[in-house]
Amino acid sequence: MRLDATDAVILDALQREGRISNADLAERAGLSASACHRRVRALEAGGVIERYVAILNADAVGRGLTVIVLVTLENQKRETLERFERAVAGVDEVMECYLTTGAEDYLLRLMVRDARDYERVHRERLSGLPGVARLISNIAMRKVFVRTAIKLG
Fold this sequence. Notes:
By secondary structure, the chain is α+β, with helices and mostly antiparallel strands. It has two domains: 5-45, Orthogonal Bundle (Arc Repressor Mutant, subunit A); 65-139, Alpha-Beta Plaits, CATH 3.30.70.920. 35% of the residues lie in helices and 20% in strands. The protein has helices at 5-16, 22-29, 33-45, 78-88, 115-124; strands at 65-73, 94-99, 106-112, 132-139. The protein is elongated and about 55 Å long.
């Protein structure tokens, strides 16, 4: 889908204020409310907007420790990769999973309560995932920043 400058204004506003009213969004984009609504629906239908979410404060919900885990599998056969991916998707503490290039096969970002909670997840869930040969864990000391908005244009 090809995006124009008006789409960029709409997307920028929605990324920063997901609950903005259509009237306010239309005003920012210089459109009528109905034209703005059609644009947003087209961006959704075109797959540019995947979904709408609320971003929670991890500390407030008791998941204040971020752990980055590098995973090396026993091999890179398709079946091994697929089995690992299906299984890791079932670990609720894993917030993101990336297939990577380099020495490790996957990068995981986990959100847990504390170091003891991570030890439990490591022992009970991660180390038992199919095909895992090695796990390297890195605990984040503090969050410097997180971006949720993609800069357009």
